[in-house]
Amino acid sequence: MKFTVDQKVIQRELAIVGKCVSPRSTLPVLGNVLLKVENNKLTLAATNLEVGMQSTIPVSSTKDGAVTVPAATLIELISGLTGSISFELNAKTVNLYVVAGYHKSRIKGIDAEEFPPFPKHDDIKGVVLPVSEFKTLVQRTAISTSDNQDRPILTSVHIVLKENRLELASADGFRLSRVVCQLENAGDDFVANVPVTAMVNGLQLTTGDTIFIGANSKQFVIKADDRILISQLVEGNYPDIEQIIPKKHKTRIVFNKAMLSAALKQASIFVRGGTNIVRLDCKPDVGAKIISQSEETGDYAAELSDVTVEGDAIQIAFNVKYLLDVVTVCKATSIALETTSNVSPGAIRFVDDDSFVYVIMPMHIQDETPPVANVSAEIQKAKEEVKAQAEKEKEDEEW
User: Fold this and answer.
1) Considering only CA atoms, which of 129, 151, 120, 137 is closest in space to residue 219?
2) Which residues of the chain have pLDDT under 70?
3) 210, 225, 242: which is the final residue of a domain?
4) Can you count the helices (H) and strands (E) in the chain?
5) Domain that holds residue 189
6) CA quadruple 163, 164, 166, 167: dihedral positive or negative?
7) At what angle do helices 7-17 and 71-79 cross, to 10 degrees?
8) pLDDT tens for each residue of 130-151
C-alpha cells in the first residue's frame, strides 16, 4: 500500500471515524483504525462492535493494500503535520511509514484481516432527510436519554417511520422528549431503538444538504455522501410514552425564551452540585418568579415580567438542568409550560411549533415561603430580635 493525501483531508476524516474507536477493549485491533486503499480511494474505518463508522476519500495511490494502526497514535501524529503526507506499508513487517516534509515516522500495525468486517446493509429501509431536520431531531431527543446501563432500552432513541410520519422519542425515567415530522414519499416503514451515541455521532457525517437514515431488523444506518455509520439496535420493547404525555392542564405559563434562559442559568449557580432544584412561583395577572436557594451558597430570585399565566396559580419545582436542556434546544422565541398540579408532570412545548413535546417530572418542595421571597420579613424579624436582646440587657443592668 502506497499513497499520498492532503493533511487537512485525512485529519478531518480521522476525527470523525475515530469516535467509534474502542481504546479499552480486550481486542487490540478495536483500538485501531483501518486504512484501505483501492483504485485511488482511501477508506478509513473504526468500530467498537456496536457502532462502526466508515469514510472514503480520494487519494493519489501507486499501490493498493490495507492495514490497521493505533487510532490515537495516528490522529495525534497527523495533527502535527502539514501539507501533503505520504504513506507506505511494509506488508511483511506490517509497519506503516508516514512522511511529511522533514518528518518521518514508523507506526506498528496489525494485519487488516484481523479487523472486523464492516456489516452489509443492502436491505436497509429508510428515508432521506434535510440535514437541518436531522440535527433538530437528534438534538431534541438526545437530551432525554439515560446513561444508566441497567436499563439499556432507555439509552436509546426510539424511531418510528410509518405512513410518511417520522417520530423520535426518548426517556430516562425523569423526563421524555417526543418530536414528529411529516414527510412526503418517505419510503418503507421501520421501527428501531438506536443507541444515542450512534445518533450523536451521526451528526458528524453531515456535509451536504441531505442525509439518509434507515434500519432493518438488526441494524441502523446513517449515510451522508461517502460517509456511513452502522449501529446495532438496542433490544427490548420501548415504553409507551403516549400514556405519559399529559392530555390536559389547569395552568399554562408562556415564557419569553431568552428571559427564562437567563434566569435559569443564574438560578443554577446556587444549586449546582447540590439539590439542583429551582422553584417557579406563577400567578395570573402577576407573572412568574424563578427562585433557587442553598444553605451553602445563598439564594437567587428573578421576577419575570414578559410572562403570561393562564388558569390556576401554582408553585412548582423542577431540576434546573432538565429545564436548561430543553431551553437550549428551543428555536422559538416563546416556550410554554403546562401542568395540572405541583405533583403532576409538566409538559413543555414550543409556541408555534406543535411537533415537539417535553415532559418533565416535578421535584418535591416543602410548603413554605422561600427565604428569597420573604427578605423583608426576615429583616424585620432580625430587627425585633436585636431590639428584644437590647431591652433584656438593659433590664439586667438595672437589676
Assistant:
1) 120
2) 366-399
3) 242
4) 7, 26
5) 125-242
6) negative
7) 150
8) 999 999 999 999 999 999 989 9
Beta strand spans in 147-198 (E): 156-162, 165-171, 175-182, 190-195
Who's near 93: CB < 8 A, 6+ residues apart?
none
Q: Is there a domain that residue 96 lies in? A: yes
Answer for the pair 346, 316: CB distance below 8 angstroms, yes or no: yes
Query: Closest Cα to residue 202, out of 164, 178, 237, 168?
Result: 168
- Which residue in the block uniquely carries the three cell numbers 511494509? 90
Residue 375 counted as domain residue: no
Cα(274)–Cα(298) distance, integer angstroms: 12
- Residue 268 shares a structural domain with residue 209: no
Alpha-carbon Rg for the chain in angstroms:
28
In the three-class reduction of DSSP (H, G, I as helix; E, B as strand; rest coil), residue 242 is classed as: helix
Query: CA 42, 48, 52 angle in degrees (round to 5)?
Result: 45
Rounded CA separation 141/170 (Å): 6
CA-to-CA dists, residue 257 to 261, 330, 349, angstroms:
6, 8, 11
**DSSP string of 266-314, one letter each residue:** HHHHHHTTTT-EEEEEEETTTEEEEEEEETTTEEEEEEESSEEEEES-E
Question: How many of the other CB atoms lie within 10 Å of CB of 80?
Answer: 10
Element (H, E) at 212: strand 210-215
Name residue 224's beta-bridge partners: 227
